[in-house]
Amino acid sequence: ERLKNDFQFVDVGRKDPNKLAASTRKHQFVEIYENFGETEAASQSHRCLECGNPYCEWKCPVHNFIPNWLKLVSEGNVLAAAELSHQTNSLPEVCGRVCPQDRLCEGACTLNDGFGAVTIGSAEKYITDTALAMGWRPDMSKVKWTDKKVAVIGAGPAGLACADVLVRNGVKPVVYDRYPEIGGLLTFGIPEFKLEKSVMTRRREVFEGMGIEFRLNCEIGKDVSIETLLQEYDAVFMGMGTYNYMKGGFPGEELPGVYDALPYLISNVNRRLDYEKNPEDFIDMKGQRVVVLGGGDTAMDCNRTAIRQQAKSVTCAYRRDEANMPGSRKEVENAKEEGVKFLFNRQPVAIIGEDKVEGVKVVQTTLGEPDENGRRRPEVIPGSEEVLPADAVLIAFGFRPSPAEWFDEQKIEIDNGGRVIAREEQSYPFQTGNPKIFAGGDMVRGSDLVVTAIAEGRKAADGILDYLEV
Ligand code: FAD
Ligand code: SF4
Predict the structure, then answer these.
(1) Beta strand pairing call for 376-380 and 392-395
(2) Same domain? 193 vs 273
(3) Which of 81, 101, 232, 253 stands the most exposed, by the fewest C-beta atoms within 10 Å?
(4) Residues 207 and 318 occupy one common structural domain
(5) How does strand 392-395 pair with strand 386-389?
(6) What GO annotations for molecular function exist for this entry (predicted)?
């Protein structure tokens, strides 16, 4: 039996869940990967070698007990696997869908060297989706309730993860968000072909069942002041994300027909979820020649949303080569399959047009010496200018922190880049300059990943529990 187990990875190759055909999915805002069935999940999980050194666990930012829950799945014990996976992750079904596994857990899998990594992300998604559908809910029966309560600003992954750990330790979290639904960028950013919105509505029901309270459509600093929160609660956690859009700094960015990525994606979500206040807010790419500038996850999501809106053509221009793109490999492949045309080593220098955008002027680049982050700097090739014709341009250059007006008076310090200073290595992890206020996620790290926001929200909750002496 043991021998058979050890060589499972030879007999059974890596198999990702089936993907909808590109010709079908490019017209639909639905997740493109199907679910594993029970047999497939078990045989794929059984491929895990249970190697003595689970690098996957170390590479996973929340340090999931991966080999342990893979073993439970291979034995058909999905409820025990769900219980275990929730000990380290507050949103396992989300991470299973949107983590760049090739750079994290699966990239570190021993089998990644030739045999094909274990499909860790798909197994994680399978565990939670299946357990929740079977009626499994986190066991709160042993929680000893305290009289403490904490305000959480932001219902994104950082805030939700913080609230999850707090409530499991008997502290009442009340989560405020200016949006009408929980999730932060999981709902108002990441499109449905990567993460269907029903995943977050189901998770909201689970969290509410655990005792987390949500106050939505409520902006702190406008509808409720930070002073009120500090008076009414024992501590405050901020997980407010980064919402300043980076600009290219070249001429023509203000022309009609040029849009920032996030308002574009949000307008599509608002239309589809019926949150749209004014039909004029909807940005429609139907029939247009679209140029997307950027090479990260946001750019990929813009590309693939424009395809689904039936753009006439979608061209993505990126200033480095394909190997140096920051976006997940898997999503770049998906975009290519769906008909996005990529132009690598192209740097935009101007958006041109009379009264509205008519094209993007780009120059070709080659990669030079590494910069301070170790990434090779693009250098312009003289005389390589060309114009990409465009009716619409989407700018996806990333996000910069957006510090709130009240940071100064509340003694919340920020660094030169605008990120809130709240460190892990201090007596109360993730405490800010104001002892009663903690912070985590994109607003502390700069824009990053769902799973790193979850990791920080959870560690900050531990810091808050220590601070409250719970
Ligand atoms: P957010 O998710 O931004 O949540 C912050 C919340 O705080 C928001 O809901 C906001 O409304 C609320 N808020 C802010 N200020 C206030 C206030 N004053 N009062 C009340 N509420 C407030 N990561 C991945 O791992 N995989 C991906 O595939 C991926 N794709 C992405 C695609 C796009 C288009 C974008 C933009 C990001 C993507 N990311 C992806 C990154 C990931 O979404 C973020 O790193 C993560 O959501 C950060 O979590 P957070 O909780 O810190 O902030
Ligand atoms: Fe992999 Fe992300 Fe799951 Fe960790 S949370 S095991 S990195 S998919």
Answers:
(1) unpaired
(2) no
(3) 232
(4) no
(5) unpaired
(6) 4 iron, 4 sulfur cluster binding; glutamate synthase (NADPH) activity; metal ion binding
Question: Quick check: 176 and 151 in contact, CB under 8 A?
Answer: yes
Residue 456 lies in a domain: yes
Residues 341 and 305 in one domain: yes
Asked if the structure places residue 264 within a domain, the reply is yes
Per-residue pLDDT tens digits for 132-158: 999 999 999 999 999 999 999 999 999
> How far is Cα 328 from Cα 216, in angstroms, rounded to an integer?
31
* Pocket-testing residue among 104, 109, 450, 452, ligand 2, by greatest number of atoms within 8 A of Cβ: 104
C-beta of 297 in contact with ligand 1 (< 6 A): yes
| pLDDT for res 327 | 81
Residue 16 lies in a domain: yes
Q: Is the CB of 220 under 6 A from ligand 1?
A: yes
CATH of the domain at 282: 3.50.50.60
As a whole number of angstroms, the distance between CA 275 and CA 355 comes to 31
Domain span at 340? 245-398
Task: Say if residues 133 and 218 touch (Cβ distance below 8 Å).
Answer: no
Using alpha carbons only, give the angle 385, 389, 395 rounded to the nearest 5 degrees. Answer: 85
ipTM value of the model? 0.99
The alpha carbon of 186 and the centre of ligand 2 are apart by a number of angstroms equal to: 16
- If asked whether residues 265 and 369 sit together in one domain, one would say yes
**120 shares its domain with 193:** no
Where would I find the beta strands (DSSP E) of 318-433? 341-343, 346-352, 359-370, 376-380, 386-389, 392-395, 399-400
* 138 located within any domain: no
Please name the helix (run of DSSP H) or strand (run of DSSP E) that holds residue 238, with its range, or none. strand 235-238
Cβ–ligand 1 distance for 219 under 6 Å, the answer: yes
DSSP 8-state secondary structure symbol assigned to residue 414:
B
Kindly give, in sequence order, each residue whose CB lies less than 8 Å from that of residue 173, ignoring residues fewer than 6 positions away: 149, 150, 151, 152, 162, 163, 166, 167, 212, 213
Provide the pLDDT for residue 269: 94
Total domain count for the chain? 3
Query: 180-206, pLDDT tens digit by residue?
Result: 999 999 999 999 999 999 999 999 999
Can you read off the two tokens belonging to residue 276? 């749209």
Task: For residue 445, give the ligand 1 atom closest to its CA.
Answer: 52
Which two three-digit tokens encode residue 260? 């920032």
Q: How far apart are CA 445 and CA 158, in angstroms?
A: 11
Task: Tell me the mean pLDDT in the region 349-375.
Answer: 92
Q: Are residues 233 and 255 in the same domain?
A: no
Amino acid type, 107: G
Q: Are 360 and 293 in contact (CB under 8 A)?
A: yes
Tell me, in angstroms, the distance from the centre of ligand 1 to residue 186's CA. 7
